[in-house]
Amino acid sequence: MSTLERSPALPLDFNLPNETEEIQGRDGKTYLQFTTHMVTFYKQTYGEHSRFFMALREARLIGSRCPKCRQVAVPAATWHCPACNFVEMEEVELGDRGVLAAQAPITIFPSASFIGQAPFCRGYVDVATDAPAASYLPSRLRTTTGLERPGIFVKGVELKLVFKDERAGSITDIFWVPVSELSREQLDKKPLLESHLNFATPKPPAVTVTEEARGELVQAIAAMRDLAAMAQESPRAQADLAGRAHVIGVKTGGGDFALFIKDRRMRIEEGIPRKPDLVIVAADPKVFSAWVADGSLTDAAVEGALWLPDRNAFQLLPILDRLPRSTRRDMGQPNLLRR
Amino acid sequence: MNKVGIVGAGITDCRGRWVEATYWDLFQQATRAALADAQMTADECDSVVYGIYNDIFEHQAIPESSLTGWIGMTNKPGTRVTSGGATGFYAMRTAIMEVASGMSEVVLCAGGEKATDCFDPRSKTATPMVIDTIAKSWDPFYEYPLGATASDSYMQLCMGYNDSYPNDIGDSMVRAKIIEILNHAGNRNPYAQRRDETVTCEQVLASRWIIAPFLRLLEVCMYTEGAGAVIFANEKKAHEISERTGKPILWVKGVGAANESYGAGRGSFYKPLDRIVSDHLAAYRAYEMAGVKPSDIQLIELHDAFVAQLMITMGEMGFVPMGRTRNLIDEGVMVDPRDLRDDEMPPKGKLLVNPSGGLIFGGHFVGGSNMFSMWSCRREMINRKAPLGLVHGTGGINAVFGGAIVVELDEGGAR
C-alpha cells in the first residue's frame, strides 16, 4: 500500500467549525452567514478508462488507435472512433518519448485542493507523433534543474516519460522531463522511474560575473541594508520576520551575498557562508533592488529571472516580499512602482 | 422562423459578494429590473429560461426549482441551461429558439451566480475554493487531478496562439492599454463592479503575475455575484411592448454557436491549442444568418475572461487579423469610450468593444454574464443609434464553447 492510498480522501484539516455568524452589509445592516459544505465522496469507476490506468500501474502507456483513420487517442479516452462512425479502436502501446505541443503554463495560484503543490507545470504532450492525428496527453511536467520556470517547457521540447515508483492508477502516476536533462543511461531506461532521477539537489545555474553587474550589486546591497534597518523599526516587518531563521545564499552576476534572518532581524553580508540553508541565483542583481523598491521576488521567480532550487524556497518568497510593503506602510513611504 | 425581438433587460449591481441577498433575491432583482424596463408584469411572460452555471456555487442541485415562484413564473414552463462560461449565451439561444419556433410569445431569460459564498478553510479566503469549484468543470479522470485551473486553461490557449502567432498578444503594453480602455468603459457603467477604480498601464505592468507571461492580476476577469435578465418577444408582442415603452426593439438577426472537442490534439476532431475555433465558427455562423460582415459591426460586447483572450477572440471573429490582434491598439481600432459622447458611434473602421467594462471591469456572474453583455449592448445601441451589435460568449475547458448573437436596432427606432 502506498502512503497516497492510505491518506484520507479529504484532508483532515480541510474543515470549518459549525457556526452562524453576523456579517455587515454594504447598507450598514447586519446579516447572518452559516458554515456549510457540499462534500460528496465517490467510489468513481474508471470504466472504459480502466485499461489505460491499469497499464500505467504496469508502467506502460497505452492509447487507442482507429483501424480506419489511424488516429490515436492517448489517453485511451474512447474505444470507438468518433471520426469513423464509431468503429472499434484497437489498443496500441506507446513509447516513452513525446514532444510538448505548446508552451505550458506554470500554476502559482492553485485551487484549494492543490495548495502546497505550487508552483507546478502542466501541459499537453504529443506522444503518438507518427500517427496522422492524435490527441495530446495532459500531464505534469517536471525539471531536474530546480523549480519549474519559463523557458523550459516550450513548444517542441522533447520529453521522456517518467513513472512514479509507486503507482496507484492515476494520471499523476506519470510525468515528463526534458530529454536534454537526462543522461544516456537514464534515456535508455524503460521504464524510467522517479527514483532514477535526482530532484532533491539541483545544480544551480552558472552565472558570469560582469563589471556592470558588480556595480549594480553594490547598489542592491545598499538598498537591502536600508530595508533591513527600516524593518527593525517597523512593527509589521517585525511580525513578518517573527519565528524565522534562514541563511539564504545568493549568487548573482555581480558577485555573491547572503541574507541572514534571525531574531526578527535581516542582515546582508557579501559572500556565501559555508553551509547556507539554500542557494538562489539571479544573473541580474537588479532583481534585488527592484524587490526593495516594492517589487516582488515571487514575480522574479515566476518570470524566470530568479532561480530557486525547490518548492520550499518558493514558499519563502512571499515572506520576503512582504518586508518592503510592511516597512513602507509603517514608515509612511509612497508606493514605489517597480517599473 | 419567426422574428425575435429584445424588448427589455435588467441587471443587478455587480458585486464581489452580496451578503445582503442570496441567489433567490438576485434573480428576483434582475427579473424585476427587466420587467420594469419592458413595462410588463411577470404574467405576460409565457415561459422562463434560467442560466445557472454551477450547482456547487448555488449550493443546490436544482437551483432553478427554488426560483420559479419567487420570480413570478409559477405554473409556466421553465428550462435551465448550463454550459460553463457560455451558459448565458446558450440560455439566450434557448429563449430565442422558443420564440422563433412559435412555442412561446414572450420568454424571460434570467441568469446569475452566487460564487463567493465559497470559502477555503486553509487560507481563510474565498478565492482558492472558488477556483476549486470552477476546476470541477474539468473531468475527474485526467485533467482535474493534474491541478488544472480556469486561468491555466485560457493561458494554455494564449501560449499556443503565441507559439503560432508570435509578437502579438505577448506585448504587455498593448494588453495594458486595452485594460485602460476597459477601465474607462467600466467607469461609465453604473452597475459595474469596479466602476470607481482607476487602473493605469503602469499599475497593470506592475501587478503580480498569475501566470507568466500573459496574465497579471489586473488582466483577469472578476468573480461577481449578481444576475441579469433579458426579455425576448415575437414580432407582434415586441411591437406592442415597444409602443408601450417608447424604446426601440432590438431584433435578433443571427445566432451562431459551436462547441469544440474536449480533448486537445493534432488533426482530426481534436481541439487545436493555437486557436479558439469555437469563437470563429460561432461568429461567422451568426454573420451568415444575419447577412452581415464583421466590417458592418462597430459595437461588440465580448466575453473577456482575460485580455490576451479578448485579443484572440477579436481575431477569430474577424475584426482584426489573426496574428495582428494588437492592431486594436497599434492602429487605434479599439476606441476609448471617453473619446466619444454617450450618443455617438465611433468613426468608420473603429470599434467600441465592451462599453460595459466587460467581464474584467463590469462583472462576471457566470450564468448571466452574457445577459449582462446583452443588457449593455442594448443600452449602447439605443443610446448611440447603432444599427448592429454583437454579443459573444465563451466557456468550457480550453474555451471550447463559443456563441455569438448579432442584433439589429429596429429601423423605426421608437415607434
Description:
- The complex is a heterodimer of chains A (339) and B (415).
- Chain A is 24% helix and 25% strand.
- Chain A contains eight helices and 19 strands.
- In chain A, helix 4 runs parallel beside helix 6 (286-292), helix 4 (211-233) packs across helix 8 and helix 5 packs antiparallel against helix 8.
- By secondary structure, chain B is of the alpha/beta class.
- In chain B, the strands form two sheets. Chain B has a ten-stranded mixed beta sheet. Chain B has a two-stranded antiparallel ribbon with strand order 5-6.
- Classes of the chains: A alpha+beta (339), B alpha/beta (415).
- Chains A and B meet through strand 9, strand 10, strand 11, strand 12 and helix 7 of A and helix 5, helix 6, helix 8, strand 5 and strand 9 of B.
- Strand 11 of chain A pairs antiparallel with strand 9 (265-266) of chain B.
Please describe the topology of this protein.
The complex is a heterodimer of chains A (339) and B (415).
Chain A: H1 3-6, E1 20-24, E2 30-34, H2 50-57, E3 61-65, E4 72-73, E5 80-81, E6 87-88, E7 90-94, E8 97-100, E9 106-107, E10 120-126, E11 134-135, E12 137-141, E13 158-163, E14 174-178, H3 184-188, E15 192-193, H4 211-233, H5 235-241, E16 246-252, E17 255-262, E18 265-270, E19 278-282, H6 286-292, H7 297-303, H8 311-331
Parallel strand pairs in A: 12-14, 13-15, 16-19
Antiparallel strand pairs in A: 1-2, 3-4, 3-7, 5-6, 8-10, 8-13, 9-10, 10-12, 13-14, 16-17, 17-18
Chain B: E1 4-11, H1 23-37, E2 47-51, H2 55-58, H3 63-70, E3 78-81, H4 87-100, E4 106-113, H5 127-135, H6 150-164, H7 172-187, H8 201-206, E5 209-211, E6 215-216, E7 226-234, H9 235-245, E8 250-259, E9 265-266, H10 277-290, E10 299-301, H11 307-316, H12 327-330, E11 352-353, H13 358-362, H14 369-384, E12 388-395, E13 401-409
Parallel strand pairs in B: 2-3, 2-4, 10-11, 10-12
Antiparallel strand pairs in B: 1-7, 1-8, 4-7, 5-6, 8-13, 12-13
